[in-house]
Structures are given as structure tokens and as C-alpha cells.
Amino acid sequence: MVDYEMDPPGLCDRCLKELVSGRGEFYEIDIDARVDSSPPILDAPNQLSRDEMDEQWGKVIEQLESIPQVDAENQVHCRRRILLCSPCFQTWIENPAGGD
Ligand SMILES: [Zn+2]
Predict the structure, then answer these.
(1) Which H helix or E strand runs over 28?
(2) How far is the CA of 94 from the centre of ligand 1 (A)?
């Protein structure tokens, strides 16, 4: 009777190595990213009249409404789970934002 161990958790998101559970070989990283929640700053609001302000806001709202819902939600709140094998995790955690 073939009874494989639990489903493999997946592949390392960096090097695509197959990860094996139960051996402490990999890390699960939950990313919970939220957009800056401060109100939008419009360009030079002091120089705008009330009507112009409304017009600006109209444009902002139009832009928001033209974004498909899924994208809009992703832009506000984004949750991801990634898996990294140990070596990749060590590299990543030193420089999680990437770049040099
Ligand atoms: Zn890896």
C-alpha cells in the first residue's frame, strides 16, 4: 500500500527547490502589506478653489473607479504567503526589499 507522507508544502519561491516538511528546511513568510492610509494629497491644494478641488477629487475618484475591483483591493491590502528554503531565506532576510 502506497501511503505517501503529507503533500509536499511546495517549492521554494526563489530557487524552486522542492521543500520537505517536518525537517525545518524552509520558512513560511506571510506578507501583509497595506497601502499608506493617510488621505491623498492633491497637488497644491491651497491654490485651488472649492470647485477646482471638487473637480480634482472627481478625477481621483474616476481613476479609482476605472481600476478593476481586484486590482484596487490589491493596491490597498495585499496578502501573500511565500515559502523559502533555508539558504534562500538567509539571503532574503538580509535584504528583503531587494536591490543592492
Ligand atoms: Zn530556495
Answers:
(1) strand 26-34
(2) 14
CA of 16 to the centre of ligand 1 (A): 6
pTM of the model: 0.56
Grid cell locating 75: 493596491
- Cβ partners under 8 Å of residue 13, min gap 6: 82, 83, 84, 88
Cα of 90 from ligand 1 centre, angstroms: 10
pLDDT digits (tens, 9 = 90+) for 20-70: 988 899 999 999 998 888 887 777 656 667 888 888 888 888 877 776 776
Per-chain residues with Cβ under 5 A from ion ligand 1:
12, 14-15, 17, 85, 88
CA–CA gap between residue 90 and residue 67 (Å, rounded): 37
| Angle made by CA atoms 6, 10, 14, in degrees to the nearest 5 | 155
